[in-house]
Protein 1
Amino acid sequence: MPRPQSPFHRVLPALVALTVVPLARATPAAAQTIEAEVRALLEDPRVEAAFRHIVEHDAETMRDLVTLTEIPAPPFKEAERGQAFLARLRQIGVDSAWVDEEGNVLGLRRGTGGSGRTVVVSGHLDTVFPEGTDVTVKMRGDTLFAPGVGDDTRGLATVLAVLRAMNAVDLSTEADILFVGTVGEEGLGDLRGVKHLFREGGPRIDAFISVDGISDRRVTHEGLGSHRYRVTVKGPGGHSWGAFGLANPAHALGRAITYFDVAADAFTRSGPRTSYNVGVLEGGTSVNSIPFEVSMLVDMRSESQEALVRLDSIFQRVMRRAVEEANEARRHGDPLTLEVEMIGNRPSGEVAADHPFVQRAVAATRLLGLEPQLGRSSTDSNIPISKGIPAVTLGGGGVGGGAHSPDEWFLNENGPRGIQRVLLVLVAEAGLAPVG
């Protein structure tokens, strides 16, 4: 039977906000030293055996992918998928496994203790899709179609495959490793899971690998920061004819959007790349009613934390100005009120391209015959990066597209290679324990 045509023409980045930047290099001597270290790992019999195991047990990884994809995990309702992920961690084998207060699932695989360090490798449990979405995996030819199959169920399946391979060949590391499924990575989840993971008094974490999406070339070492707000304008409301002259929340909100668009457009035309968006408008009861309440959701992003704060200041100022002017223009009635609620705060930041952790990921990518692409995105790695803890986001391998859409798809084209890269970067950072 001829192989069905794969939808390569529709390939979309699984990390939708990714910005690829030119590949910076460490000093030649440092880069060569790191590459030699990673090459030695790649040639170690235990790593070679783990690589073979990943290929030979790829069908098991694909079963994990399908099974976990078909467990709904809408925002703030990841518990069922989390329990399935926890059961798999325990079945494969970890020293201990648990669910923390925020809903993150953690499995600890102890190292030899030689370094006293802890490295995390994680995928996120949640999807962007609301409750009731059909998440049944449909097979068309050799391609899987289902919401969330790549972002980020592929990440979860990769984390499990890495653990399975390490256990199968008795591959020990010096550092402890935490295998994690985080909650709240998407949208209004606002990275709540990884924020809890890195809370004051949380577990020791010295380096962090997020497995998000599919690309086996990208090394995301820069965090794209964002501020998100819900803006609500309230007033007395009334009949469009009989109460005409009351301050109108919809008119005030429209004025606010115009002021913000004009000011933000001017601000974002120079300096670090920065964006803004009004994504949702809500409110009103009928065409002939003055609304008593209207609201909008606003998203602002920037490569620069300073630029993000400055744009936020512009936003706050014009929101107040619009409502004040609407109140001054009213003919009678009570004034409007303004509520500006922050519903998302993701910090910007970066790990230097010549940092040893980033260079290990670069070397691993090259040694697998791929050209690495350094980039920026908004992922779980934003939080450790903002705290000065080295972190990278890697894909779990394969080919896919349509992320965040009902038509998301995944093709297991060179899928094991992405898993192998994650394992190699993890072992390079955690340290391969000496034999015996």
Note: The first helix runs from residue 28 to 42.
Protein 2
Amino acid sequence: MIYNKPEIKLRPTEVSDLETLFQFQLDKEGAYLAAFMATDHTDKSAYIDKYTKLLANPAVNNQTIILGNDIVGSIAKFMMEGDSEITYWIDRKFWGKGIATQALNEFLVIETSRPIFGRVAFDNFGSQRVLEKCGFVKEGTDKGFANARQSEIEEFIYKLT
């Protein structure tokens, strides 16, 4: 069987992308798997305000994932407690197509901070596979309050050196 990779591209996120990206994170299943979200992830003005400020922060690398002419997700590097961390979100209708893996691999070429960490809910197997396919190694666990689940859950910590 021949596997055709989706033709994605990354480009710096623009303020005009935020409306679409906001809609993606409203998906209930996606929010459940992401787990660690804003207290009220449905507050559009708070979302737009927060991410507009992040776009201006030189320590943050926000990229929008494009497939054809459509925005299908986002990927970013941010700083947390002095460490470089990655985060990504793919529109659920594009899950299982290799987009997150391809986007992360491409992102790691332009974002050269190392080590870089990825955190993932213990039961988000898809995201765990993405990190592992991109060379991240599980190095620990932590617990944190997951707003999307309204409970404390375990998260796995992955590292790429």
Note: The chain is about 30% helix and 35% strand.
Protein 3
Amino acid sequence: MNKKDYSVIALDLDGTILDADYLLSPRVRDTLNTCRKIGKKLIISTGRVLTSAKSQVSALEGVDGFVCSNGADIYQGSGKSIAHFHMDKTLSREIYLLARGFDSHYHAYLGDAWCYERRNAYTDYYVKRAGKEGLKLDFDSYGTLEFTKFMFIDDHEKLELIRKRLVERFGESIQIVYSAPFMLEIVITGVSKAAGLKLCVEYLGASLDQVIAFGDAENDEDMLLAAGMGVAMGNASEDLKAKATAVAPSVDDDGVAVFLKQLFSLEG
């Protein structure tokens, strides 16, 4: 495709446009604002929930859509829901009962609220990452639970054991991805950034082949492969970079801004 035919820019947040301190650099901010001014639509595609995603990109002059919770929730830029795909109460309960058998941190999202049953050092880490405190509760006593997604946080070796147990127990009824080597996320089968992005893009009147998608982690892979141009960040794994259409510089070097300025011949 000619570069002018790429009308949609899909962006992961953490490790893609947000640095290790969860900050959006002025250079990336200004470049994305310029892209929108020349007619490109911006979609944020993230593992974060809507309130968290919106707060992280509040410096932008506008966003046209959000694909949140790895594709479980899709929204217009205003925050109005387009579609959602959550766990039913039976699956939600079976997953937290399994989680209790491990000493890793685990939590679930109910809407935009994250809830956990016990606290450890990884819980404190996630408070900083999420930008808000979670709700400590007993899942047994909560009532009807229909999780948006479920997450484990721990050393990668421990998460691999949990991943194996999840596959043995739930098989193809769930989708398991890493959003970072120490963060394992679970959604229902069929939910992915690629599927969510497709719905969001079509809602905006475009198609996936018109999308440039940027990402850095395992949960971005299907999105990069589905897009017309999938761009892996320089800080991504070698495996992801090998599968992508192109590779941008690292997030620490404002890779998204560098790539888009070159692609669209932007000044500055």
Note: The chain has a mean pLDDT of 95.
